[in-house]
Write a structure and sequence with these properties.
68% helix; 68 residues; 0% strand; mainly alpha; rod-shaped; single chain
Length: 68
Protein backbone atom coordinates (compact mmCIF):
# COMPACT_ATOMS: atom_id res chain seq x y z
CA UNK A 1 0.00 0.00 0.00
CA UNK A 2 1.33 3.40 -0.93
CA UNK A 3 2.27 5.66 1.98
CA UNK A 4 0.01 8.50 0.91
CA UNK A 5 -2.97 6.14 0.67
CA UNK A 6 -2.15 4.69 4.07
CA UNK A 7 -1.82 8.20 5.54
CA UNK A 8 -5.26 9.12 4.15
CA UNK A 9 -6.84 6.01 5.64
CA UNK A 10 -5.19 6.54 9.05
CA UNK A 11 -6.23 10.21 9.13
CA UNK A 12 -9.73 9.15 8.14
CA UNK A 13 -9.94 6.77 11.10
CA UNK A 14 -8.68 9.52 13.42
CA UNK A 15 -11.29 11.97 12.14
CA UNK A 16 -13.97 9.30 12.52
CA UNK A 17 -12.98 8.84 16.16
CA UNK A 18 -13.09 12.62 16.68
CA UNK A 19 -16.51 12.77 15.02
CA UNK A 20 -17.84 10.03 17.29
CA UNK A 21 -16.40 11.77 20.35
CA UNK A 22 -17.94 15.10 19.35
CA UNK A 23 -21.31 13.45 18.78
CA UNK A 24 -21.48 11.67 22.13
CA UNK A 25 -19.76 14.31 24.28
CA UNK A 26 -22.16 15.86 26.76
CA UNK A 27 -21.78 18.75 29.14
CA UNK A 28 -23.45 18.39 32.51
CA UNK A 29 -24.37 22.04 32.93
CA UNK A 30 -24.34 25.41 31.25
CA UNK A 31 -23.53 28.06 33.80
CA UNK A 32 -25.92 27.70 36.70
CA UNK A 33 -28.44 25.51 34.88
CA UNK A 34 -28.07 21.74 35.48
CA UNK A 35 -29.07 20.78 31.95
CA UNK A 36 -27.31 18.17 29.82
CA UNK A 37 -26.18 19.76 26.58
CA UNK A 38 -24.22 18.57 23.58
CA UNK A 39 -21.89 21.47 22.72
CA UNK A 40 -19.78 19.65 20.12
CA UNK A 41 -22.55 18.12 18.00
CA UNK A 42 -22.31 20.94 15.48
CA UNK A 43 -18.82 19.77 14.51
CA UNK A 44 -19.82 16.15 13.90
CA UNK A 45 -20.94 16.74 10.32
CA UNK A 46 -17.73 18.60 9.47
CA UNK A 47 -15.52 15.82 10.85
CA UNK A 48 -17.59 13.17 9.09
CA UNK A 49 -17.27 14.98 5.74
CA UNK A 50 -13.49 15.22 6.23
CA UNK A 51 -13.45 11.50 7.05
CA UNK A 52 -15.35 10.60 3.88
CA UNK A 53 -13.13 12.80 1.70
CA UNK A 54 -9.94 11.31 3.15
CA UNK A 55 -11.26 7.77 2.74
CA UNK A 56 -12.21 8.48 -0.87
CA UNK A 57 -8.77 9.96 -1.57
CA UNK A 58 -7.04 6.96 -0.02
CA UNK A 59 -9.11 4.48 -2.02
CA UNK A 60 -8.59 6.49 -5.23
CA UNK A 61 -4.82 6.63 -4.72
CA UNK A 62 -4.65 2.90 -4.02
CA UNK A 63 -6.83 1.96 -7.02
CA UNK A 64 -4.79 4.20 -9.32
CA UNK A 65 -1.60 2.51 -8.16
CA UNK A 66 -3.04 -0.98 -8.74
CA UNK A 67 -3.88 -0.16 -12.36
CA UNK A 68 -0.21 0.55 -13.18
Amino acid sequence: MKRSALACIVLSVIFLAVALFSYFYESRSTGLLPIITYPLRDYTVVFTIICVVLTSCGIFIQKRREKR
